[in-house]
Structure formats: C-alpha cells, structure tokens
Write a sequence for this structure.
C-alpha cells in the first residue's frame, strides 16, 4: 500500500550518495563497531530500510546498522560525524510521515536488537526499556503489577518506544491519559557528537528546561534515543465501553462535542464512519452495524463506584442526539473485540482500493460537524473516496482517501484533496499533525502553520544540538530561505 | 529608557539577591522587542518577572546592572473556548483571573503553584514547580498546548497550537518550562483546562511520624486507591492529608476504602470534610528551604532521613517530593549536609530559599538536573548575548 504524493516535498533532498568504494569502506567500519551480524550486506536487505509506512518516497541508505547497546550507537554516530554522513534512527518503521526515510542516504540505525526491558519499578511506577522495545511489551512487563504504559497507538504491537518518543505517538486513550510526552520522564540519548547523556530524571520535575520532553517528537533530529524511562499508569479498576450507533454523521459529531461540554472526559471517544464500518465487517466480522452512518466507541474508566453514573450520562447524551442504539460491552471479551475493530479500522480500509493515504490534521473538536461536512465536500469536488476513523474526542482527524496509484489523474486529485484537508485544519485554527509527525510528508505545510521567525527559533535549537545537521536531515523543519 | 520603563529604588517589589532592580520595564507585547533592545543597549541583564511569587529560587544573577521585565501588561484571558476546554492568556495573567473566567463554565485550571492564585501563568510555567494537585492533574507542562515567546533579540517564536494535540515542529514550550526566564520571555500560553469535579472530600489521618504517613500513602497507591492529592506534614503528630475528587458515588466509595486502608496502617482519622491542598511553599519566616525530588517509591525513606533534621517538612508522596525548611538559627553546614545525606541518588535538590551569602557557595540546583552542557548550548543559541537572567539557571548558566 502506498501513500499519496506530496508535491515538491523532495525538492532539495536529492541524496548525496556515496560511491560504491566509499560505501563498502563505511560498511566495514560500521561492522567493526556492531559486529558482522549487525550490518545488512545485500541491497535487497537494505531496501527494507528505504522508508517507513509513508511509502510514496523511498531512499536507499548507504548502510544499515543494528546495534545492541548505547555504546555501539555512540560509536556509529562518532564515525558518521567524522565522515560527515547522515544518521537516521529507525524503530519498527511504522511511522506514517516518512520520519525514518533516509532522504540523504547515510547510515540507518535500526533499534530492532535493542529491545530489552531493563527495569520495572512498581513502587515508583517507572519502567526503563531500550529504544527498540515495543510499546506493547512495556505494558506486558507492567501488567503483573496492575500498571500499564498508557499511550496506545494502533501500531502498538510492533511500534517501538523509541519510535513513539521520536513521533510523540498518541492513540485512542490519549484523550484522558495524554500522549507519549506526558509519560516519558527520562531518556538516554546519543548526541550528534557521540556523547551519551541522560535527560530528565526518575524524580519528576527535575530543575531546568525539560530537555527530555523537548526530544519527544523531535523525530531523531536532536539526538538518538537509546533508552527510555516512562511513567506507568495504574490499570483502571473498571471500564464501561459503549458503542453508539447513528444514522446521521452530524448527530454523531455533535454528540462528541456535547459529551465533552457536559464535563465528562472519557478515556476514549472514537468515531468510525460507514465506509470503514463496512470494511471492518468484511475483514473482521466484529459485529458492527454495517448500515449505520457512523458509530462512536466511547470508554469511561476509573473506580467501579460511580462509573455507571458516568456511563448513564454518556448514554443519555447519545440518545438525546438521536443515536438509534447504544450498546455496552458486556464483558472484557466484547470490549477487546470493539477495540480490535477500531484499531484495525485503517488496515481494513486497505481492502477497498490498492492505495490509501491517511491524514492527521487536528481541529478544535467543537468544529467537528463542520469539518466532516467540508471534508466530504472536498471528496465530492475532487471525486475521491474519503472515509473517516479517528480520535473524535481530541479533534484529531484521520481522513483516509483510497485510490489506485496506476490512475495518474486520480493520484493528482487525491493530492489536491489531501492538501485541501490540511489547509482546512489550519483555517479552523488547528494543526497539520496530531500524532504522526511532520517527517517529509508535512514538511511543505510547516510554513503554512508557522511564521519564519518561529521556524528560525526551532532551527536555532537544532543547530545548538546538531551543528552539522547530520541527524535525520531533511525532516521536520523546512530549510531556511537564506540557506 | 522608554516610557514604559521606570526606575524602582530600594524597597521596591522587584528585588533579587537583596538587590533592587536598576529599572523596571513593563512593556506590552508590541513593545517587548524595544524593551529588550534598550536593556541590551544599557548593558543590563533582564529578569522576566510575573508576580514574583517564586522568583527567589535560582543562582545569583551574574551581572552588574539588572532590569526587571514585568509581564503585567501582557495580561488577560485572550481566548476561552469552554466546549473545547482550552484557554489562551497573556503570560502576565494570574491564575486567579483564569480561574474566575472559567468558573461560570464549571471548569478550572487544576494547578496550584507555590504562589497560589497570585502567581502568573508565565511565572508558574517558567518556574516549573507544581503544587500538590500534580498527582491527579499533571504539571503545568502537561497541560500546555502552545506558547508564544520573545527571544532575547526580540524575535517572536511560537510553538504548539490551540488544539489539544499537535506534534508539528519542536515543542519549544518544553524548553521554557523550568527555564526560569533564562532562554526567552514567555508572552502567551495556551492550556488545556478541565471540568470541575462534581464532588470532593479531604481526609486527615494522624501518624507517629512523617515516614509512617508517607508509607501509608504508598500503601494507598499499591492498593490502586490513588487520591487526587496527598500531603504529609511533620509535627506532633505527623499528618497525612488526602483529597478525593470525582462524582459523588466515587468520592463516597473511595473515601471509605481509603479510610479502611489507612486504619490498617495504624493511622487515626482526625478530620473529614472539604479542604484545599496545602500550598507547596515554605512559611514566610523560613530562612532556608529545599525541595528534594525523588522517585515516588523513595519518598518515605527521604522523609524518614530528613524529618529529624528540619524545622518543618511537607511531602508529596504521590509525586516523590519533599519540601523541607529551617527557621532562624539554621546553620549552613548542618543543613546542606542533612539535605545531601537525605537526597535520593536518583533525585534532585532545589534550594528554594537561602540567605544571600549562602547562595554564593551553594548551587541552587543539585543532583539529576538538566544536562548543564546542553542548557549552556541552548542558552548560547537562543540568547547569545546572555541577556536573560544570566547565571541563575542550571550550572549557573
């Protein structure tokens, strides 16, 4: 499955390839650091590392290293700094914005062998893991203590904590529990000159600028995160998971606004529209209503006492907004089935057409009804098929456009629709990305969201930490007009 | 000197390290660049100044002349979207003003910085010191969605957005949180607000010692009965205060269950009712005070080591913090030795109050603090003239 084109994003990003001899020498030097089994030798092996889940643009790395330790990462970074070669850190490659695409070649540093859980401290509710540990493995390690790692991106079974940190990953439950930045307390990083330092502290609110959380969402451009210490959250004592079924999309989106306005903060508040409902049912037979215009998956959690009162209020709001049915998951099994359907929703859409693009804009949630109406209008005007499965409670839209990349005219229309959706989010006072990151996909939109002086301040931060610009170049920040 | 600047004089409220400001600038946002340029022209350092409720924390200012840069004209709630639960306000807006603006919508900003409602949003954010509500509601940094700031050269820098989620670009707000005005002047902040809890309750239990009280609070956590906030205060007896928030059913049930667990720990209930958490600040007459941050599981141990060495102590067992203070007669050597011996090796110490002479010898920030070399590099990048609060931060940057 490939993602949509983004015109001119790659301008100025022509990879400065090493010659074959230089490449072989680089590979030998990397191998001296990470061992023979830590380097990928064949072009076919390396091709897997030419990008992430943003597949429109690919770029071959000159070498792929699979370090096991922070020290090995540091040595590779020192080597690259000496030779002026870019270094691109990569987790599981599930990113949706091209953050792991080595657009200027260089060494891709995969954290796949750095996947150990190093420490679980239930009394202090902390976990420390190597950057390549999966998101889900953190929660598995914490579960025996009644704790979990709260950010839960749909990719959590494979996506790594290092990748989550780089992109500041979210997920359905961030409505109540926050994104990755709200849960990371410290990290070990390798800086651009190879120096290893620890940012943050096991003790909250360390004095001074919050450098650990500056690194969260920095997409590997300020340093390479090798270990992460995160705060664990108690598993809620109880849940109530509701499925509200609507015959009208506007009733559904108005319900989202009404629930929040009522002063209820659900753990999650997700919307799925009719196209995706049908796709999910075809793929998973999850028991969702295929004839509905949209559904909301609403979860309230916390102490058992009082939870029914909250769930009753949510149900009453849904019914007041003409929900034709409101079901409550009867048990953990039914709840898990609902969540599996939600998290596999985007994947199920892949069955509808050969290609798909997923957007990640954010709007003020009170403007959801208007936003969805206007996105549908964009789809009609551009004659593209747009469907929606997203974090409604956060106002974080994920319109999916399905298309066939072999149809050049359709590709062009998808590109236009995609751009118009992002512009709509900005015009509504929102953001170009809520959780997927800028990467290369959204680079051209940064100037629409920020003034040049804002971007200059960010560039100053980048130059302070990576003066040579070798850490994941060509990402997150557009080049200065004077460059 | 521009019209917005006025000299103070001894006894003015803009006093740092016992030295009154040589001038006070109170520019509007549109005048800020000029004010910073004027200060630079006068070879004066600039100390951004909110309500001054937590400004004394920090290393001595490294400068001959200094100007206070008051944010009082950058005040006011600028945008309030109750249905989106987002508020945008000038950095000089006090917490009290924001709470007043939110009250008609049954919403609040659940932060309680040491300066209480008098604290400005900008000052509280730059100080990065939360109160006891942190446990349930997070720090101010957890609630910030976007900031606008002025760099030392007057250029405007914005990051984040006015929506509840955005990962576009670097989160400059993280740099400003805890920077104590040393990297940029915060001018505007957008924050996520919350619905007011429908019901609250406060329970108070007496314990034989602060350490026992902290252990009992940890016991609540192990039972997954986390209160909204908890405070351990030493004295005779020591007291554990716990606050509960939620809907009425939840508060009644949780209060009863907590009571049972605490009685099992041998604690006696002394009070039950409504009440606010105590302010995270030493008493006005304390001559020295320090906050010791530690992993939360070590709070009881830190309290146990410290409680006999102090004149007063307040601990937050849910966030891993101990605020200790000493009154007149305090001896520098004894106090520093007690604090360093009690601190967690994985934690940090902030000397929040010290006699001026001690400040020259004691670094205000010790232990696991932000990497000084990185702080210095960022300072050079954002404030190359060293205009903003020079010397006051980590590593005396």
């Amino acid at each position: 499955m490939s993602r949509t084109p983004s015109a001119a994003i790659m301008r100025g990003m022509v990879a400065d390839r090493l010659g074959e001899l230089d490449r072989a020498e680089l590979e030998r030097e990397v191998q001296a650091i990470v061992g023979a089994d830590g380097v990928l030798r064949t072009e076919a092996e390396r091709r897997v590392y030419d990008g992430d889940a943003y597949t429109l643009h690919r770029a071959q790395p000159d070498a792929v290293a699979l370090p096991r330790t922070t020290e090995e990462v540091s040595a590779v970074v020192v080597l690259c700094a000496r030779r002026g070669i870019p270094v691109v850190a990569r987790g599981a490659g599930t990113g949706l914005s091209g953050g792991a695409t080595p657009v200027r070649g260089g060494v891709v540093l995969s954290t796949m062998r750095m996947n150990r859980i190093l420490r679980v401290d239930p009394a202090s509710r902390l976990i420390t893991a190597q950057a390549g540990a999966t998101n889900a493995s953190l929660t598995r390690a914490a579960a025996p203590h009644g704790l979990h790692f709260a950010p839960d991106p749909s990719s959590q079974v494979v996506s790594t904590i290092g990748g989550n940190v780089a992109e500041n990953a979210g997920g359905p439950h961030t409505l109540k529990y926050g994104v990755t930045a709200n849960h990371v307390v410290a990290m070990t990083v390798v800086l651009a000159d190879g120096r290893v330092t620890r940012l943050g502290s096991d003790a909250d609110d360390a004095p001074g600028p919050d450098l650990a959380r500056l690194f969260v969402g920095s997409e590997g451009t300020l340093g390479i995160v090798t270990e992460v210490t995160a705060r664990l959250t108690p598993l809620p004592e109880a849940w109530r998971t509701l499925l509200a079924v609507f015959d009208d999309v506007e009733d559904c989106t108005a319900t989202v606004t009404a629930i929040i306005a009522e002063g209820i903060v659900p753990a999650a508040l997700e919307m799925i529209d009719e196209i995706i409902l049908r796709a999910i049912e075809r793929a998973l037979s999850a028991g969702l209503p295929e004839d509905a215009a949209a559904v909301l998956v609403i979860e309230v959690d916390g102490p058992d006492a009082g939870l029914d009162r909250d769930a009753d209020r949510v149900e009453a709001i849904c019914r007041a907004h003409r929900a034709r049915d409101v079901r409550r998951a009867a048990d953990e099994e039914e709840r898990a089935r609902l969540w599996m359907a939600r998290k596999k929703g985007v994947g199920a859409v892949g069955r509808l057409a050969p290609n798909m693009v997923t957007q990640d804009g954010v709007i003020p949630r009170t403007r959801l009804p208007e936003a969805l109406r206007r996105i549908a209008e964009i789809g009609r005007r551009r004659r593209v098929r747009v469907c929606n499965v997203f974090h409604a409670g956060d106002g974080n839209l994920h319109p999916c456009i399905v298309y066939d990349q072999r149809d050049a005219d359709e590709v062009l229309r998808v590109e236009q629709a995609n751009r118009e959706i992002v512009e709509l989010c900005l015009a509504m006072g929102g953001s170009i990305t809520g959780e997927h990151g800028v990467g290369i996909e959204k680079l051209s939109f940064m100037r629409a969201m920020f003034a040049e002086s804002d971007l200059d301040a960010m560039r100053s931060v980048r130059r302070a930490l990576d003066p040579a610009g070798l850490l994941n170049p060509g990402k997150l920040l557009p080049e200065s007009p004077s460059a | 000197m521009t019209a917005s600047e006025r000299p103070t004089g001894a006894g003015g409220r803009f006093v740092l390290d016992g030295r009154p400001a040589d001038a006070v600038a109170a520019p509007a946002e549109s005048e800020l660049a000029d004010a910073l340029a004027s200060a630079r022209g006068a070879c004066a350092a600039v100390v951004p100044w909110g309500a001054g409720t937590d400004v004394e924390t920090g290393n001595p200012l490294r400068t001959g002349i200094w100007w206070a840069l008051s944010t009082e004209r950058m005040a006011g709630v600028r945008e309030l979207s109750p249905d989106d639960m987002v508020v945008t306000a000038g950095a000089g807006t006090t917490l009290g003003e924001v709470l007043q603006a939110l009250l008609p919508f049954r919403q609040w900003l659940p932060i309680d910085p040491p300066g209480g409602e008098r604290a400005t949003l900008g000052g509280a954010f730059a100080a990065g010191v939360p109160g006891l509500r942190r446990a349930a509601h997070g720090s101010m940094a957890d609630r910030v969605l976007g900031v606008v700031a002025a760099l030392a050269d007057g250029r405007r820098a914005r990051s984040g957005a006015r929506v509840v989620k955005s990962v576009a670009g670097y989160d400059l707000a993280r740099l400003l949180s805890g920077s104590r005005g040393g990297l940029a002047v915060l001018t505007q902040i957008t924050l996520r607000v919350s619905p007011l809890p429908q019901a609250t309750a406060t329970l108070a239990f007496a314990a034989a010692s602060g350490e026992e009280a902290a252990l009992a609070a940890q016991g609540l956590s192990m039972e997954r009965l986390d209160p909204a906030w908890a405070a351990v205060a030493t004295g005779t007896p020591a007291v554990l205060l716990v606050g509960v928030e939620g809907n009425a059913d939840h508060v009644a049930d949780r209060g009863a269950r907590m009571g049972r667990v605490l009685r099992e720990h041998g604690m006696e209930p002394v009070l039950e009712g409504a009440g606010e958490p105590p302010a995270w600040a030493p008493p006005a007459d304390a001559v020295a005070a320090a906050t010791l941050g530690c992993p939360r599981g070590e709070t009881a141990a830190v309290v146990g080591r410290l409680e006999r060495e102090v004149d007063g102590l307040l601990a937050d067992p849910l966030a891993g913090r101990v605020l200790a203070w000493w009154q007149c007669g305090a001896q520098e050597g004894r106090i520093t030795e007690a604090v360093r011996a009690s601190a967690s090796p994985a934690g940090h110490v902030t000397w929040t109050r010290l006699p001026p002479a001690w400040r020259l010898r004691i670094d205000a920030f010790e232990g696991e603090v932000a990497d000084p070399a990185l702080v210095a590099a960022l300072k050079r990048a954002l404030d190359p003239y060293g205009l903003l609060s020079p010397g006051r931060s980590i590593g005396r940057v």
Summary: Chain B has a mean pLDDT of 93. DSSP finds twelve helices and 22 strands in chain B. The first strand of chain B starts at residue 5 and ends at 6. Chain B touches chain A through 91 residues (CB under 8 Å).
